[in-house]
Fold each of these.
Amino acid sequence: MSGEVKQNTSVASGAIATASSATESASDPVYNTNPENVGAEWHNTTSGEIFICNDNTVNDNTWLGQKGTNVARTRGLFMMGQYTASGNTRSIDVFTIDTPGNATDYGDMPSPALMAVAGSDNGTLGRAVVFGGSDGTTYMNTILYTSIESTGTGASFGTFSEGVYGPAACSNATNDRAVKAGGVKQPWAYVNSIQYITVSTTGDATDLSDMSVSNFGCSGTSNGTNDRGIIATGSTRTSLDYFTISSTSNAADFGDVTNAAYCGAFSNGTSERACFAGGSTAGTGGNTIDYVTMSSLGNGTTFGTLSHLTDWTVATSSGSVGDRGLICLGQDYTGGSYQSRVKTVEYVTISTPGNSTDFGDCTDLRAACAGASNGMT
């Protein structure tokens, strides 16, 4: 006998054949790769990772890799927010970021209904969190959470040190740390604290560090597991702060963009591009989209424009793989004054500068909400 093991589908040979459901490819499977059965295998011949299908819903499959990679359609959530000048909502809207279309109702966050909240997530691990906000009277110090991959109501996660209106949030994705930064507290005073949570658990936030300025109307994004957070520093400002999410070092100045107030911040994660869309600096809405390279410091560069002037804009993205940013336009500003909240959601390809394109609508009017997705790794 030679001792050589060969591929052989003959039972008589005694050799173990490759399962008929196994597919070999130089890349990972995708959410609309449709295997015949749950349990089907996919072998990535480039990375060596083996994936098993654990849900074979047509065009909505999920694949779990033995190295921890989770492949599923990328969902973006817009949670809570303001739908009229005097009314807030608890509702959660869900979009499939891969495919333009209108949102569907995903469930509700616990009472009360809030606006000027901040959202983040732990990426492909699939949990979204919401920080702070206001019910119209009280500025909240609550943290809420929900699953990105299953419909239903949200739940209480914990608290942070003081109730704030208009903070920012971001995370280092599957490294599982999310932070809340800035905001304004009662009686009216800006704060600069950065506090963190471990997203996959529940509990109260812990102090991490401070922003370089105290402000509200902030927004945040990150380069995912590369561990850099960037905060658009909010009301009346154009500056960005940056910090290391896993470090206790204080934030420092990164550079300037056109609008760092009430804008929508998003990124393509480890591909290192962050964008800042809409917002205002002098009481007027904006439609600019700027971008920066997160791994280096410097001022923003023009990316494109939104379809109209907005503020209290909120965004999320599908990360480095999907490369798509989703922008909830928030509060419309036309004709020199603020108009109604809008349902409109637009999108861009983050690696390719250009104007935004219509994606679909939220289920209701929505501004100053919280965004999250399961797109970051």
Amino acid sequence: MTNAPFDLTGRTALVTGAGKGIGRAVALALAVAGADVVLHARTGTDLDDVEKEIRAAGRSVRRWLLDLSEPARIPAAVAEVGPVDILVNNAGTIRRGPTVEQSYDTWREVLDVNLDAVFLLTRALGAGMLDRGHGKVITIASLLSFQGGLNVAAYTASKHAVAGLTKALANEWTARNVQVNAIAPGYISTANTRALRADPQREPSIRDRIPAGRWGRPEDVAGAAVFLASPAADYVAGHVLVVDGGWLAR
């Protein structure tokens, strides 16, 4: 490990879903730590603000626009990204509702983004990391990588799956100096949790169970991403790092 264990100078990171929420916070934190950043989103307007902030921090930044709900497009489109040292699979979607009322199309919509796109991106960009002999892959998992949740069957299945994929790839890639890990955020104030935070019954029941006494902020997750992307985590592999204000400890 270097004398600056959290320094990412000279590294390039791709962050998917970087326009808002956790992705935006992670992209900014990686830039502050020294990384140049490739920002992914479906549309360029989502990235205007975060791009300006990264440039203001003195780092190089560029965009990669792609709709990850069409995973078949990823193998060809990923060539536009170029080599990266750090991949943060953050983009995700959720569809709430009783399972018996959910269509197969809805199931596939969630799995396409949360699992298939993660697999295809990681396989494509991880191949270059393996060839170069170094790299970091970080996937945003969830508390629902461990629990079942309510009315989110597809999301829960996808997040259990990415936790398993993280461990499987770590077994294959760690000996070649590519560390694969995940972060499992707790209840974070983002667009994905807007419906829960607006529910007058569920919101206080969730908050009351969190030992920290509050919902998390996207910035609460960003430090964990910097750690896992840095030389400080060179001996961390196949781990799902929970950032939940103590939720799972209850």
